[in-house]
Design goal:
single chain, about 110 residues, alpha+beta, four-stranded antiparallel beta sheet, two-stranded antiparallel sheet, about 20% helix, Immunity protein 53
Length: about 110
């Protein structure tokens, strides 16, 4: 299911799928995100697999990626807003980078 953004939303489309989506595409979540980002020239956000709900993997339109932190308050309202990058992302050099805390570097 693709859901277009409301006029006041800051991020964009939301793709929701289940194992059927992975089975149908033959791709895992990250690979699908890279394909969509490159095809449509957009950013995609994917769960980074960590225990931190505010950390995601941002995939740039060129397919490069890196972990980012989102605004938790805005996310609670359904709006995903990037606060900063936790590592350099070659396709998004304008994103302000802040390294993760020492205890979170291995997540």
């Amino acid at each position: 299911m693709l859901t277009p953004p409301d006029e006041d939303e800051g991020f964009g489309w939301i793709l929701t799928g289940d194992t059927e989506l992975a089975d149908a595409t033959g791709m895992n979540e990250r690979d699908l995100a890279v394909t969509l980002a490159r095809t449509f020239g957009v950013w995609t956000l994917v769960d980074d697999g960590s225990v931190f709900p505010d950390q995601w993997l941002l995939v740039s339109a060129d397919g490069s990626s890196g972990r980012v932190t989102i605004d938790e308050d805005a996310a609670a309202d359904g709006d995903l807003r990037i606060v900063h990058a936790l590592e350099p992302i070659s396709g998004e050099p304008q994103l302000a980078g802040v390294p993760p805390s020492d205890w979170a570097r291995d997540w």
